[in-house]
Design a protein that fits this description.
Layout lengths: L1 H6 L14 H7 L3 H11 L1 H37 L6 H49 L2 H4 L2 H12 L1 H31 L1 H31 L1 H14 L5 H6 L3 H53 L5 H43 L20 E10 L6 E11 L3 E5 L6 H8 L7 E6 L2 E2 L5 H6 L1 E4 L10 H6 L9 H11 L1 H5 L22 H14 L4 E5 L7 H14 L4 E5 L3 H4 L4 E6 L2 E6 L1 H7 L2 H10 L4
Parallel strand pairs: 3-8, 3-9, 6-7, 7-8
Antiparallel strand pairs: 1-2, 1-4, 4-5, 9-10
Helix pairs in contact: 2-13, 3-4, 4-5, 4-8, 4-13, 5-8, 7-13, 8-9, 8-13, 9-12, 9-13, 10-12, 12-13, 17-19, 22-23
The structure holds adenosine-5'-triphosphate (ATP).
Length: 617
């Protein structure tokens, strides 16, 4: 929906829109502990090694600076005395060299573990994301706000890995700073205060711009989804045919150009301002450093501190400044990253309404009476119109019921309610006298086989495409072959160069594409893979020629003797095979009966039947 409303000119948010408050950003930091817990759970051993290496690394700068002070003081001492031994000096240099080597090795180790842990974490969070998405209700997928959340949670996979390194780096730098600060404060605590004042503006500036940047990116989520959609539509095998025939490329490219350049310009404005202010703040930091430097030089000239101490203190100050700046700046990007975590956790907090219940009744096998619709009404999310209303009828156990109605009458909606992809907005559906909502959804879905008109063309082998009907039987070749025979897919598969192992669809190399009707025969095979008590064919035969459709349904009737089935077809030659026919119009019950009864009644069905017989439908 968002996509089309944007096509019709809804304006994306501008920079001036209210940014997030400091409070919101600080409160987003509460996501860090659960986040770190997730990182830890990814691989506790690697996480522990990472923490230990970083703790060791944090102490190295002070050690190097201190050894540096000793070296310089020793050099000064040697220049003032004649014939002194250089052994101590060389030992100090060797120690500093050793520290430098250890530091390099630790850096490499940290980078390695960060990378590996980051990869593991990214993989695991993607898996969790897919698993959680699979648990959600269908109508949640039809909500554009949900899609935006999913999109942000998905897009941030890489950034979450970066965030992990940032948080760990932050802890490491803070530890280094504490160690250095002890040395600096022991000499003169005012130096620490000066340092803090010098870097504060840079911190405030960074946090302000990060907040803006988050608002910009966040506010643009629907448009960025639209950009992805345009990119995909403009260059994909699914759309190439119509894009060419209707000459849509210019239209799509223009829309892409218009949107992407708006985003680019907004972003450019922000980045430029950020860079300009960044230079001003950096100069303030340098001023602080040179202030402290002048003070130290004067103290050295006055003989209060040694030259070695001067290098130690100036080095500590410089290092602290760098660290403090890095920590404060990183703090703002960590806060920003935490805001994105909000999306991530929000997504995981979404709960499906259709859920498993511990006290659910056992699913009847066999179904004794059937499904009874009691005053059922249903509205799709965010719509006012009733797709189905006041529906009262019984689908009897073992009968074949055909649904007839014009486009948009509500046939597919009825099927979705039967299979509990949605629950009725009003009224209820009973199965053998028990509300469908009381059964566990998995039990119900196991007992129902539905092939929709828009079934998925999985870009996988022909065998897998049939096995999809019961994926735990994917290795059961005889079962797959027998299902293929029943749905007439075997005639299609026998012509494929690699038979059941042939990849179908054009997406992958070696893939062979099929005609619409051939795809349908394969998809129909899925229905026969199941040992379901209720089979529903929602017009999956529309691309078959009339003879093939007749043959498919004839077989279907024979092979599903005694099973309950719902058939949807616009062809009356097929419809008349059903035991009873339910005619619906605008989501409402019109009439129900066998073909003969409805013809004899001479009402709506009879009229539609006559129209088709004359070739008007
Ligand atoms: N996901 C959806 N969100 C909002 N409205 C929907 C959705 N799916 C269907 N509708 C609306 O619900 C009504 C019934 O649609 P449904 O798909 O059940 O019709 P149908 O009888 O199966 O039509 P067809 O013969 O064209 O397949 C239509 O008005 C349709 O526009």
């Amino acid at each position: 929906m968002a996509i089309w409303s944007n096509f019709f000119g809804k304006k994306p948010p501008k920079l001036g829109q209210p940014a997030l408050s400091v409070q919101e950003r600080v409160s987003a930091l509460k996501h860090l502990p659960p986040f770190l817990k997730m990182v830890w759970q990814t691989n506790p051993r690697m996480a522990l090694v990472n923490v230990v290496l970083r703790a060791l690394r944090a102490g190295i700068p002070l050690a190097i600076l201190y050894v540096g002070q000793l070296i310089i003081d020793e050099v000064v001492r040697l220049t003032q005395t004649t014939g002194g031994s250089t052994n101590y000096l060389l030992t100090l240099v060797a120690v500093e060299f050793g520290l430098a080597v250890v530091s390099d090795v630790l850096n490499r180790g940290i980078a390695l573990i960060d990378g590996l842990l980051g990869d593991l974490f990214a993989n695991q969070s993607s898996i969790k994301l897919m698993e959680h998405a699979a648990e959600l209700d269908l109508d949640q997928f039809e909500d554009s706000a949900f899609y935006d959340k999913l999109e942000r949670a998905r897009r941030q996979t890489l950034s979450r890995t970066v965030l992990m390194s940032q948080v760990l780096g932050q802890l490491q730098d803070i530890l280094t700073m504490v160690i250095l600060a002890v040395g600096l404060a022991a000499f003169n605590p005012w130096l620490l205060l000066l340092l803090f004042i010098a870097v504060l503006p840079a911190f405030l500036g960074e946090s302000h711009f990060n907040e803006r940047s988050y608002s910009l990116v966040h506010g643009w989520t629907p448009e960025r989804r639209e950009l992805d959609y345009l990119r995909q539509t403009g260059a994909s095998d699914d759309t190439a045919k119509e894009v060419k025939i209707f000459g849509l490329s210019g239209f799509l490219v223009n829309r892409f150009r218009e949107l992407s350049s708006k985003f680019y310009l907004d972003n450019k404005k922000l980045s430029t301002r950020r860079a300009a202010w960044g230079s001003v703040f950096a100069s303030l930091g340098s001023a602080g450093y040179y202030g402290a430097y002048v003070y130290l030089i004067l103290q050295t000239a006055a003989g209060v501190v040694s030259i070695g101490q001067l290098t130690f203190l100036a080095g500590s100050f410089m290092r602290m400044r760098g660290l403090l700046e890095a920590v404060l700046n990183r703090f703002t990007s960590v806060a920003e990253g935490s805001l994105y975590l909000q999306d991530f956790f929000d997504f995981f907090n979404l709960q499906p309404r259709i859920q498993r219940q511990a006290s659910a009744p056992t699913f009847p096998r066999p179904i004794l009476h059937g499904f009874t619709f009691e005053n059922v009404g249903f509205k799709y999310r965010n719509t006012e119109k009733w797709a189905i209303r006041n529906l009262n009828f019984t689908l009897r156990a073992g009968e074949k019921l055909a649904l007839v109605g014009e486009n948009g009458a509500g046939k597919t909606t009825l099927v979705k309610l039967l299979s509990r992809l949605y629950d009725p907005t009003e009224g209820r559906i009973l199965l053998d006298g028990v509300d469908l909502r009381e059964y566990n959804p998995e039990d119900l879905r196991r007992e129902i086989g539905v092939i929709f008109q828009d079934f998925v063309r999985f870009q996988m082998t022909a065998g897998t495409n049939i096995a999809i009907g019961r994926i735990d039987e994917k290795e059961n070749r005889p079962r797959i072959e027998s299902s293929a025979q029943q749905s007439l897919a075997d005639t299609v598969i026998s012509k494929l160069p690699e038979g059941y192992d042939q990849i179908i669809g054009r997406r992958f190399s070696k893939g062979v594409d099929l005609s619409g009707g051939e795809w349908q025969k394969i998809a129909l095979g899925r229905a026969y893979m199941r040992d379901a008590q209720l089979l529903i064919l929602d017009e999956p035969t529309a691309a078959l020629d009339a003879r093939a459709e007749h043959e498919v349904f004839q077989r279907f009737s024979e092979l599903t003797q005694g099973k309950t089935a719902v058939l949807i077809s616009h062809r009356f030659s097929t419809v008349r095979m059903a035991d009873r026919i339910l005619v619906i119009e605008n989501g409402q019950f019109v009439e129900m009966g066998s073909h003969e009864e409805l013809i004899a009644k001479g009402d709506r069905y009879a009229e539609l039947f006559r129209l088709q017989a004359k070739g008007y439908l």
